Amino acid sequence: MIRANDIMSESVIVVRPDMLVHQVVHLMLRDRVSGFPVVQEGRGLVGVIAMKDFFKIIHSYSQSHKIEDFYRTLPQIQQKPVADFMSTDFMPIKPETNLHEILQLLIDHDVGTFPVVENDRLIGIVSGHDILNAVFAFDPDS
């Protein structure tokens, strides 16, 4: 049975809540990842920021502003801290969480990035990429 600790990425890049949107988007694009755990010194895991969160921001601003105003506000959005947009209702999973349970959470809650936590400590992350890789690269004969 495939479990979170079998497919998680252990070398997790984390971001701080005070990092600016443009810095985090740059990391996402550079490293080709769809999300990051947000960790605050002294508090640990405080949220998750995903590409989907940035798409929601862009959509919200584009719907609530005239098109000219929207383009003028983009630099302001880029300078905001990630804490303003991160999800704080993230779904941590345990290392022993099986693939079926992860898929159920993904479908039921529309979540694509799962921090893997053990003893209140972030030990990895499972993303949609990890799930697809596990399913389509899995060889039952090995």
Whole-Å distance between the termini? 12 Å
- Helicity, in percent? 40-55%
Morphology: globular
* Uncertain runs: none
How many runs of DSSP E, i.e. beta strands? Answer: 4
Q: Count of helices?
A: 6
Can you walk me through this structure?
The structure is a single chain. By secondary structure, the chain is α+β, with helices and mostly antiparallel strands. It has a single domain, classed as CBS-domain. 44% of the residues lie in helices and 18% in strands. It has 6 helices and 4 strands. The strands form 2 sheets. The chain has a two-stranded antiparallel sheet with strand order 1-2. A two-stranded antiparallel sheet has the order 3-4. Strand 3 and strand 4 form a beta hairpin. Helix 3 packs antiparallel against helix 4. The protein is globular, with a radius of gyration of 17 Å. The mean pLDDT is 90.
